[in-house]
Each structure stands twice: as structure tokens, then as C-alpha cells.
Amino acid sequence: MEKSRREFLKNATKTSIAVAGVSVALAGCSKKGSSENLVRGKSPKTEILYQKTKQWDMYYSVAK
């Protein structure tokens, strides 16, 4: 009884380590993500990051 229980625990430990190793290896080989189909650099719009306004002038004067 004791010997069979010990063998079962050893086999279960080996199996769980093998499964964990395979899952880590497969997780590293996954796809790059959903951004691989993005088209970049062909937008006709210009991006405006800053417009000079009274509020921005007040913010920058306080931030100095």
C-alpha cells in the first residue's frame, strides 16, 4: 500500500512538471497579438496634439 502510494505521487509529480513545461513552451510560441493586421502610416489625417489656448497658457505658466 505504502509503496504504490509513493509511486503514484512520484508519477503524478513528474506528469504535472511535464505538463507545466509544455504549457510554458506553448505560451511562449503564441501569436504576436491582434496588432499584426494593423495598417500603419497611411492615414490622410494629421494628428493635432496641441492647440494654443488660454487654458494651456495658464497651465504652462503655473507648471513652471
Description:
The protein is an all-alpha fold and 64 residues long. It has a domain at 36-63. The chain contains 2 helices and no strands. The chain is elongated.
Summarize the entry for a quick read.
InterPro entries: TAT_signal, TAT_signal_bac_arc. Helices cover 58% and strands 0% of the residues.
How is the main sheet built?
A: none
Number of strands: 0
Overall radius of gyration: 29 Å
Q: Distance between the terminal alpha carbons, to the nearest Å? A: 78 Å
> Beta-sheet strand percentage?
under 5%
Helix share, percent? 55-70%
Number of helices: 2
Shape: elongated
In sequence order, what are the helices and strands, one letter per element? HH
- Low confidence ranges: none
Category from helices, strands and their pairing: mainly alpha
Q: What number is the mean pLDDT? A: 82
Keywords: Molybdenum
Protein name: Tat pathway signal protein
Which helices and strands appear, and what pairs or packs with what?
Elements: H1 2-28, H2 54-63
Features:
Tat pathway signal protein; mainly alpha; 64 residues
